Amino acid sequence: MNYFSRPFAILAVLFLGIFAARAQQTAPKYSPAEADYVAHDFAFTSGERLAELRLHYRTLGTPQKDAAGRVTNAVLILHGTGGTGGQFLASQFAGELYGPGQLLDITKYFIILPDGIGHGKSSKPSDGMHTKFPAYDYDDMVAAQHLVLTEALGVQHLRLILGTSMGCMHAFVWGETYPDFADALMPLACLPVQIAGRNRLWRKMLIDGIRNDPAWAGGEYKEQPKDGLRTAEDLLIIAGSAPLVMQKNLATRDAADKFAGEVDARAAALDANDLIYQVNASRNYDPSPKLETITAPVMWINSADDFINPPELGIAERESKRLKNGTFVLLPIGDQTHGHGTHTWAVAWESYLKQLLERSAK
Length: 362
Hints:
By secondary structure, this protein is of the alpha/beta class. It is about 35% helix and about 15% strand.
């Protein structure tokens, strides 16, 4: 199959959901309410339709309303490719942000954690449709998030959108598609341009590794294509790694070899069709032509040890100048950075979240 035809495989920072989030520990003191919203006859940008699109979400806290009955304290937090809203219950995120007096104190804010289309408990290819599942993209995912807010939760405005990795890219799409919906945007670990260069190449290698495994069987496999998923997992580890962290955690030859030998156990968490669709979702992503239309205050943060968004490209510095009310911060490599996955370690960037909330207060 031609790489430039259907489905166009771009990974869109997949490792977050599969590698980093898998290693996180859930903070037990936060037990969110969980529910599903079913969108009927959902129309995708591809022209396909789905009679029932299930959209799963979690919430923490209680909505507060003004005299007109409008929710005033809602915060939307968006996960990366391969992840779920549940990853934001991890201690390095929830433990730093949701507690009494913390920046997103759930006694003050109504936190909304959706599972994107194709992820978690939302509708996805592995539910049974396999490769007949509609080829969703980021515009579809954001439109579905908008439905969850407005139809399921009655939220017409957000205090904040915070997005990590793919969710970071969704935050830029939100800012352009619904410019008045949020008071502030905090994109973490992405670039607001087409995915190209090395990023595009290694993603193609990953997806080809799955499709070229005979066991994939055109998506109608009876058992997961293990060889293809091993290739995918190996590439995810490289993309999601950071030299300083890996050197500390795998400080000996034996430790590194042992970790490399555990690829089968890690790959067992993947579904080949879900992975391909998650990767493919970024095929149309390119908010760069309309960055000037984003009016909400933006605090955009990347880290200098991010393999997926390397600072030496200079893209962030160039594009951030086009944001009318935006600030770009590049976190230097240090003990608090974790490569691309720094976005989920709130201690590394919470001071900038504080600045954004203060700057955007009304």
